[in-house]
């Protein structure tokens, strides 16, 4: 079971890296550093969205979970060890960010 989870994570990371945009092209606010990303169909994300009463049934975009803004790209001490993304809806105080696109820093 752990191998299957690892394979999904590696595949997701590979796909995210292949479609990443430069951070300078993020025009929806600061680039976000999210602990994890996925779709609304992912069980853990779906459960979190349900608990927060956020309906994204019609959204097929990437969703970031536990996100914090990266305000200065390239400055010491402000890096992202998880998934940097540019999101169109950051109105959930960092718990989730909707409409995300992976970013290359």
From TrEMBL:
<dbReference type="InterPro" id="IPR019778">
    <property type="entry name" value="Class_I_Hydrophobin_CS"/>
</dbReference>
<keyword id="KW-0134">Cell wall</keyword>
<comment type="similarity">
    <text>Belongs to the fungal hydrophobin family.</text>
</comment>
<dbReference type="Pfam" id="PF01185">
    <property type="entry name" value="Hydrophobin"/>
</dbReference>
<protein>
    <recommendedName>
        <fullName>Hydrophobin</fullName>
    </recommendedName>
</protein>
<dbReference type="GO" id="GO:0005199">
    <property type="term" value="F:structural constituent of cell wall"/>
</dbReference>
<dbReference type="InterPro" id="IPR001338">
    <property type="entry name" value="Class_I_Hydrophobin"/>
</dbReference>
<keyword id="KW-0964">Secreted</keyword>
<keyword id="KW-0732">Signal</keyword>
<dbReference type="GO" id="GO:0009277">
    <property type="term" value="C:fungal-type cell wall"/>
</dbReference>
<keyword id="KW-1015">Disulfide bond</keyword>
<feature type="signal peptide">
    <location>
        <begin position="1"/>
        <end position="18"/>
    </location>
</feature>
